[in-house]
Amino acid sequence: MFDVENLDYPALLEAAEAAARATTGRGRVADYIPALAEADPEAFGMAVATVDGELYGVGDWEQPFSIQSVSKLFSLALALAYSSDGGAGLWRGVGREPSGNPFNSLVQLETEHGIPRNPFINAGALVVTDRLQSLTGDASGAVRQFLRRESGNPLLDTDPVVAASEAEHGHRNAALAHFIASHGNLRNPVDTVLEHYYAHCAVAASCRDLVLAGAFLARYGVRTDGTRLMTRSEAKRINAVLLTCGTYDAAGEFAFRVGLPGKSGVGGGVLAILPGRAAVCAWGPRLDQAGNSVAAVTALDTLTTLSGCSVF
Ligand code: GLN
Predict the structure, then answer these.
(1) What is the chain's pLDDT, residue by residue, as a tens digit (312 residues)?
(2) Atom 2 in ligand 1: which residue has the minimum CA distance?
(3) Which among 6, 18, 84, 123 is placed 20 to 30 Å from 194, CA to CA?
(4) Do residues 115 and 13 both lie within one domain?
(5) Which atom of ligand 1 has the smallest separation from the CA of 248?
(6) Is the distance from CB of 30 to CB of 3 less than 8 angstroms?
(7) pTM of the full predicted structure?
(8) Which atom of ligand 1 lies at the shortest distance from residue 166's CA?
(9) CATH code at 97?
(10) What is the C-alpha separation between 269 and 283, in angstroms, rounded?
């Protein structure tokens, strides 16, 4: 058994990897963005970065993959951190309730008059990218720069092939963005917002990069260099929205199985936070119906179930 006060991360990662590898063949690699379909369906990696600066990994933990919607955690964090009003304005343009609908659904947006339900469905992330663009003049560049600094990986970048593939097949995101704009909820031109949204979704990063970049949430808002990105209360709020909305319409199932704030992406990555302790990222390209990685959710489920460690 594992000691919940003193987690044996190498042993937990080994057990999590074994459980994840046993899911072979379950789920499907995303192909609605054609460039994503080229991922190796059996790849698997997992990493942990503790608040004390320890770093552990198993499998393909240093292999870059398309982070996709995991980037939405960082765009939200930066938009809130850079807001001069504590985020009050941002939260007027995007809600913070679970959607109960697929991440790219158009239906809810119509009934809710162009105010997306939360920042992690595509519609909400477009609003966040728009606000970050107004705050920085280069939304995707701000996300890349933050990821590079926190991970210490200067080579981390947008994959231009994936970004172009997203744009070419982005009719649904374009429809969402135009619809939001029709309600006056975008400050920048639709094309600019889409370009920056695709560019931050198409960043290629590894489990290693993502745990280091996400660890500020485990440190309650403190960056790798010890400076504060946001207040403890803001970090708590981001973790809360991750828990309730970070895995789309499967957020309830994810809370039930894993019990941690987490953000998934259709590239197969899931970044989860053990507040006060560590950031954990698992990656496997095969996705379930909701768009969450079968292997990554299984791995995180195993880690929290074996250790008894979660936010509950
Ligand atoms: N870039 C992807 C999209 O817009 C992100 C979706 C996701 O990872 N859930 O469809």
Answers:
(1) 567 778 899 999 999 999 999 999 999 999 999 999 999 999 999 999 999 999 999 999 999 999 999 999 999 999 999 999 999 999 999 999 998 888 888 898 988 899 999 999 999 999 999 999 999 999 999 999 999 999 999 999 999 999 999 999 999 999 999 999 999 999 999 999 999 999 999 999 999 999 999 999 999 999 999 999 999 999 999 999 999 999 988 999 999 999 999 999 999 999 999 999 999 999 999 999 999 999 999 999 999 999 999 999
(2) 68
(3) 84
(4) no
(5) 9
(6) no
(7) 0.97
(8) 1
(9) 3.40.710.10
(10) 4
